[in-house]
Specification:
Layout lengths: L2 H21 L2 E7 L2 E6 L3 H24 L9 E3 L5 E6 L4 E6 L1 H15 L4 E4 H6 L8 E7 L8 E6 L5 H18 L1
Parallel strand pairs: 3-6
Antiparallel strand pairs: 1-2, 4-5, 6-8, 7-8
Amino acid sequence: MTPQENFNFLNSYHEQMEPVILKHHGIIDKYVGDTIMALFTQGADDALRGEIHMLKKLEEYNTGRAHAEYASIKIGFGLNTGLVMIGTVGGRNRMESTVIGDAVNLTSRIEESTKIYNNPMLISQNTLYDLDIPGKYDIRFLDRIRLKGKTQPLSIYEVFNNDPINPRDGKRATKFKFEKKSL
């Protein structure tokens, strides 16, 4: 893409996703290229419902892109729950608000793992434990990953609510066997 096409794409994509984040009580911390860093202060359920809704919105967006003869895009979500510190960083001439903390770093690593596992929606064990009723969602254990700077592995789970019906039903039917094998 040309630089202008890239800006047009990014703004178009962000325009689609921002209302979904806000609808689910999310706060956008920052845009980093095509990455959107958002906080959900009302709990893990809002964040997870937001992710599920964003993937549905992506399907609509990709349909429009196909009609305009643009390639479809794929996105990945890493979701983690934990304490963060909100503050201002920068120097005298340029400052911005941001969040920092171990939870932010873990979230970034989980998001990176979506590419490795070819799965658009991964959550941490911390998020799973913070859900009001985890059984409301299609979730299964995926793996334990070792993260840089951590001694204990982190369990990650795939959320497959947005999978097409046949694969989703297959994952539901084999969940116990899959998780038993993964452990």
